[in-house]
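Chapter review: from sequence to fold.
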Amino acid sequence: YVVVVGTLLIRRIGGLVATARLRRNSVAAQPAIRHRVLRVALATGVVPPDVRLLRRCPGGAFAAGLRRPWIALDPDLVGVLDDTELDGLLAHELAHIRRRDPLLCLVTGICRDVVFFLPGIHLATSWLRRETEEQADDLAVDSTRRPAALASTILKVWEARVGRPRLANACAVVAPAGALRARAAGWRRRRTSEQPHVLVRVQRLISPLAMAGEPATRRELAVPATVLTLAVTVGVLVPAWLTQVLHNDGVLVRVLSA
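The C-alpha cell string follows.
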C-alpha cells in the first residue's frame, strides 16, 4: 500500500512540477488579450489572473495555480476564435478560478490516490470532473450571455486538440506530468471516451431546456460523497466486521488450486 500510494503521490507532484515548467516556458499575453481578460473577469466576479501564451498548450487552454491562479492559452487556438468565442473561452477558464477548481481537483486527486482500492472512487472523481466542466460552462454563460458562442468555442477547442497532447480537463493539476511526450499516446486513446461529454456540453448550451434544470451545486458534491461513503462501507467496514464476527485476522475470499 505504501509503495503504491507513494508512487501515485510522486506522480501527482510531477504534475505540479510539469505545470510550473509550462508556465516558465510561456510568454505574457498581448495587451489586447489582457484587456479582454480584465473585462471578462469583472463580469465574472474574479480578480484578473495572469494570462500566458503557450505553444502547443495541452488542452488548448487551461486554468491552474493554487495561490496565484493563471490561464494558459494556445496562440494558434486564439487565432481561430472570433471575439465572442474568445470571450466564452476566457469566461469558462475564469469560472474555474472562481470556483477554485484547481484546488478542488488537487484535493480530490490526492484522496483518490490515498484510497485507490475503494470501489467507486474512480467513478466518483470522474463524474465530479464532468460536473465541474458543466458548472464552469453555466457560469461562463451567466457572465457572457452567449451560450452559442461558448458551444462553438468548445467544438473548435476539440478540433484543435485532436491528435495532440492534452490534459484530462481544464485543471492542470489533475493530469500529472501533462507535458510529457510519453503520455501523448495514452491521451489520444482517451479521445473516444471524452468526445460524448463534449457533445453533451454543447447540447446543454444550445438547448434552453437542458440548462433550465435545477443547479447542480449541491448534487455536484453530494453524489461523490455518497459514493465515497458506500465505498468505505463496502471496502473497509464490512471486511472489518466480518473479521470480528469470525474471530479471525482476515477473510478468505477464494482458493485456487494448482
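Two observations follow directly from the output. Residues 166-188 have pLDDT under 50 and may be disordered. Residues 88 and 121 are 32 Å apart (CA to CA).
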